[in-house]
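User: Hey, my collaborator sent me this sequence without any context and asked if I could get a structure. I don't really work with proteins. Can you help?
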Amino acid sequence: MALNVILSKPETMFKARIVSIKDEIDKVLLALHAAEALHVKEVKELRPIEKEIVEKKKTELEDLLKIVDRFLGYVKKEHVIEVKEKIEPYTIPELLEKYGEPVKQIFSKLQILAKKLSNTESLKEKTSETLKYLELIAKKFPTLKLRDMNYEGDVVFSKTIVLPVEREEDFMKKVGGIVQFMVEEPTPDMHEKVIVIVGLKRDFQHVKPVLRDLNIKIIDIPSEVKPLSEYVKELKEKLKEYESEYVETSKELEKLVEENLNQVIVLRIILENEVAKLSVLEKAVGAKYISVIEGWVPESLRKKLLYELHNNVKYFYISFTEPCKEEIPPTKMKNLKILNYFEPLVKFYGVPKYTEWDPTPIVAYSFAVFFGIMLGDVVYGLALFLAVRYVLDKLVENPESENYLLFKRMLYVSSAAAVVGGILFGSYMGDTFSRIGIKIPPLAPELINPLNLIIASMIIGLVHVNVAHFLGFIRAIKERDKVIIANKIGLFLIQIFGIPYILYTMINYPILPIPGEAYEKLIYGVFVGIGFLAYSQFLAMRFFGTFMWIFDITGLLGDVMSYTRLAGVSLATVYLASSFNLMCEMVINGVNSLVPGIIGLVLGGIAGAAVFGIGHLLNFVLGIIGPFIHALRLCFVEFLPKFYEGGGEEYSPLKLIIRRRLVIRPS
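Assistant: No problem. I've predicted the 3D structure and written it out in structure-token form, which is a compact way to encode the shape of the chain:
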């Protein structure tokens, strides 16, 4: 917003590609007319890729639907969901964008928690099972070392196994003469036995496949010199930790599901509808019964376009993509309401490119101030307002065109500026009021002095021109243009050091709080500035450029001096008005002297009124044309070329144009 009151950026544009079946193309056009949002561009390619686009989008949505269904698989209890989100056909793309990516991210978190829960549950079950078996042995052999229960040495080995009773006979047949039972404890249900087997290391390779074939579990026990009773205690502590972690993770998972269930449900409703619609469109694409319209849509009108399409068209697919580097979208200027009245002026100079600054705000201030200073009369300003309100429409063919309406409002603002200027100068049709005895003092009496007004005009010019140079400097930095950067630095240095130096040495007017002798040294700063100018011209023109820097200085001086027209036109308006007042007075007095009495007074009044009316009408017309042209010139010649290029394409959407007034002339 802060930037929009100085310079603005054109509105962000998206490339819209609308795919629909041919039978519905009329409905698509109806929707585009109603939306007034699509700047249509030529579709250079209509190819099988349209089928790929629709299929790809359908696949993406189906994959997202699978994610949603997997998410809902984690719901552990019944929920009653009230969908409060307003789901309309035109809001579906916006809702997909709103919920699609967040749900993917939520599902990723959900998977992490689910995996953590699964691992914790696996560890809990494994620990619980191990503990169940080892507690049986620990009751009778608490001091038994873990190393004795799980050992593989060079000569002997030991393993702790869980042997189902029904497989004991088979096990003994195959390895009975090879291993010995060091410990043997049955489980409480008598279906299994926990056995510590020992044997020679060379026989272990024969025992391993038997254990595997009979599906006999080997209990995982660390081979440590630690009593079994102590290890059992450790397992109990671990089991508590796993149970606690399992409960916490379960709660976290449940909370994540419940907090996001509503938006997942909304997304599922949207996806079901979109997939069904694309399925129909996919068949149409495959059958080649398809139409494609492509164009540019401003960000602010995307929703309106979608609304109209969904209201009018049953089967379509629309995609929005940002412009690539090779594409130059049309420009839709985006300014504050009162500032956009001045957009026609900028368009007259050149529509800003999509990637360029829009200078409408600063041109609006500049033009209004310049016009107000030069017309600078309260009565003329009010007369301009009335003329625009009641006369101007009759002079144009299409008084309803958008640009004309903006231009008309710009003149309203300009007339208000003229009224303000008139109040500052105390001008009411020149000195008309003071001649009839009505004294209205000016708010800025010092500006009535012509010399002061000329000085003020030059100061305005100096500031205005340097604002333009500064904006050009910023643009050059963005574009890394060394020539312009060096040139602008040179101009700034010459002014920063040169203006105080000239004012002090020529008219003994110090404007800096420095000693008098320091002013003499400012000339060195001027030389540095000249060096930058010469360097910039050398980069641009090589040898011949070293002599061209002088034209930069004279050009700057000429630009600033050009603003004295503000004082000249303003004084001309006031003096002409006063001259016509004087002529009116002279005519009245002359007629009275020639024809004395009531008749002379009446004739003198009529003649004086004619001179007064014609004179002020002429001055009013000149007072509008002159300030308008000169204000325009200061903006177009002295200001804009220093930083603004233009040459963009104006955003022109497809819409119904209904003119309420037509002028038909004979051929």
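In plain terms: The longest helix spans residues 228-286. You can pass these tokens on to your collaborator as they are.
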